Amino acid sequence: xxxxxxxxxxxxxxxxxxxxxxxxxxxxxxxxxxxxxxxxxxxxxxxxxxxxxxxxxxxxxxxxxxxxxxxxxxxxxxxxxxxxxxxxxxxxxxxxxxxxxxxxxxxxxxxxxxxxxxxxxxxxxxxxxxxxxxxxxxxxxxxxxxxxxxxxxxxxxxxxxxxxxxxxxxxxxxxxxxxxxxxxxxxxxxxxxxxxxxxxxxxxxxxxxxxxxxxxxxxxxxxxxxxxxxxxxxxxxxxxxxxxxxxxxxxxxxxxxxxxxxxxxxxxxxxxxxxxxxxxxxxxxxxxxxxxxxxxxxxxxxxx
Length: 304
Prior knowledge:
The chain is α+β, with helices and mostly antiparallel strands. The protein has one domain (about 5-115, about 145-295): 2,3-Dihydroxybiphenyl 1,2-Dioxygenase, domain 1. About 15% of the residues lie in helices and about 40% in strands. It has helices at about 15-25, 70-80, 160-170, 225-240, and strands spanning about 5-15, 30-35, 35-40, 50-55, 60-65, 85, 95-100, 105-110, 150-160, 175-180, 190-195, 200-205, 205-210, 215-225, 245-250, 255-260, 270-275, 275-280, 285-290.
């Protein structure tokens, strides 16, 4: 196993104040800002979950937490890059490279974890057709931004999706959870990829690769505390006047409940909860591309 988890996304924005305000209302927390650099953290223990430098609008890439120093050295050898002190909050050591589409990939080992920030609330107790479990107590979520627990995954566009899927499998040890094809089943146009962690359970997808005319970002996805946290966060983003892209609904691939918003530079950010988990024994599923596999319920995808 090379990679423990995805940890952060890397952007450039021309207006750091505007993107900071958006991401804090979205549910991240201030960590460090100075000069032309902005770091934001989640409520979880990652040293940070989001970094942007000031400059021309761009999605730069993303960073992973590596499972061991040996794994870091193996990755450095694969990319032909040095292992150096990590310049980001949390420190540790890191190496970096690029994928065939030019996205920057950073791999960090030994960064100091942060104390978790209390997220409020308590596990939801449901009254439904199966049972009445919440007896004499009321469900009263507090109004305010979502409480982002962690970066969950990124979804990227690639003009050569099959080659990119193979590259991430061969280079980073990722495995497909589900493949999407168009026409012939061999004509794979997208994949939802999980980390190769053997018998250990992991997110249904840490990376989604989707065929597109050019390389780019479809969205970055952050996990909320629970469904009420996602729903109240939806209200906050609407009340603040931000641009809603899509949601609330439940995806087909990965099953997570989703809600998408668009930041001031045009990048899409997803809130999600209740995603699937898989491991090395989970079968690889394959489905044709179509509207019916975009979601199980919710509003129609914009443009379809």
